User: Fold this.
Amino acid sequence: MKQKKCIIIGAGIGGLATSVRLAALGYEVLVLEKNRLPGGKMQQIERDGFRFDTGPSLFTLPHLVTDLLALGSTPSDLTFKFNKLKNVCRYFYDDGTIINVPEKPEDFAREIEIKTGEPAANILNYLKTANDRYQSSADLFIFNPLKNIISSVRNKKPKELKPMLKVKPLRTMHKENQISFRSPQVIQIFDRYATYNGSSPYKASSMLNMISHLEHNEGAFFPEKGMYSIVEAIFHKALSLGVKFQFDTVVNNLISEKNRITKVITGNDELNADVVVSDMDVNMLYRGPAKKLKMPGSVKKPDLSSSAIIFYWGMKQSFPQLDVHNILFSGDYQREFQSIFKDHQLSNDPTVYIFISSKIVKADAPEGKENWFVMINVPPGTEKVNQKWIDQARENIFKKIHRTLKINPREKILCEEIATSKTIERNTGSWKGALYGNNSNSIWSAFLRHQNKSGKYNNLFFTGGSVHPGGGIPLCLASAAIVGKEIEQL
Ligand SMILES: Cc1cc2nc3c(=O)[nH]c(=O)nc-3n(C[C@H](O)[C@H](O)[C@H](O)COP(=O)(O)OP(=O)(O)OC[C@H]3O[C@@H](n4cnc5c(N)ncnc54)[C@H](O)[C@@H]3O)c2cc1C
Assistant:
């Protein structure tokens, strides 16, 4: 029988994972990628002896990667190793409080009680609820096509919907956290999970409070060779299964006839395939190669997730007071989210995230030095981004670090690279530099996300962080698994 052909547009994590799944199903797979290297938002840069992962830094649900690497009959020539972090994160507050997050929930609860007076039992109850919610809804909401969720909700009798409504999804994350805890510092820790899909805790549904389950109950992990080794492992697995990659290749157009995509047009070629999978940000896809296809409402007027400014600093010394993942909290969290989603401005007192992979991967910085990835959340959009905007962001970060850590970073930086919403849009094709496609600032967001299979073209599929079930490495891998299953059923 003739081998079926698949074209995948984009070698982000979703595109790479889909390529492995389809090759394992026996498809002849060609991945077209506009960049020179695979990874999309998961890139790395090297400068003056420092290596920086440029995008994702937090790694949860590692089995989704190892399950993928175990597919097919051909082993990859690369081994992928990772370890569980003993300390998940270190939180710093303006008043000098420092809270560590040890891997065991009981130890975390004890730390919280000592540092904030919040009873340990409140933390453990909350994490149990997050676990229960995840176990009862993840399969339907994360690992199944969106249409299954919609029909499952539609087909339920009011009585059967009761347990779902017990969660009170109309409450915001913040409201629920306020009800659950007395300490404002603890509320802030759990509110922060809204940023894991670029949303605001003051708007997103309390359903999303289950995100904390992943880090606290399942654990946070880190690859032995850094985040980019996830990309390398999946890329090599794809190569071992015979997937072909064409880099430096921009897809300009999709041609359709009746209910099929008949041609994929690049600068040099007109290609055809039995199935086409887009790993492009959908907001860009419909404004680019698919501009002749009908644009869904959620794409026409997208409510975008946040973007970021990231400074990659090679630091001339190491800082024992910092861990791998560090959060320097804003003194006014509500105001910060208002700046991002309402005022569309930089916050004067941003929450600063400092990620230092060289704490684990010693080769990521010269001896005695550290590689700092310093990020703040900013509004999506490219119009306002100029040198003044970047300088203002850097200044705000300097002030925050100085106030909280008593370090003057200005004197410690050996080299600097910068990412903004403009460079993120240019380098990864994400509309307005939004990190996760559309945000989840409404109870309906999950239902409005773009589906993984086209409703009109029966050989067109969508994977990656801008479609169902959402952004972030685990959800992109879940989207690839859904696409794989849908195509297997064709
Ligand atoms: C700064 C930052 C921090 C993040 N932190 C985390 C984190 O800690 N943990 C986590 O899990 N997630 C995190 N994320 C989110 C995560 O990186 C993304 O959800 C995920 O990598 C997106 O993968 P994707 O499959 O959607 O593809 P993308 O990474 O968006 O890649 C799409 C690919 O398509 C290519 N492409 C676009 N247009 C075309 C075209 N016309 N022709 C050919 N190719 C094209 C692009 O070049 C790109 O390679 C972060 C993201 C960023 C940017």
User: Anything to note?
Assistant: The mean pLDDT is 95. Residues 9-15, 32-35, 40-42, 55-58, 250-251, 279-281, 288-289, 308, 310, 424, 428-430, 435-436, 464-465, 471-473, 476 surround flavin-adenine dinucleotide (CB under 6 Å). DSSP finds 17 helices and 19 strands in the chain. The CA atoms of residues 231 and 482 lie 20 Å apart.
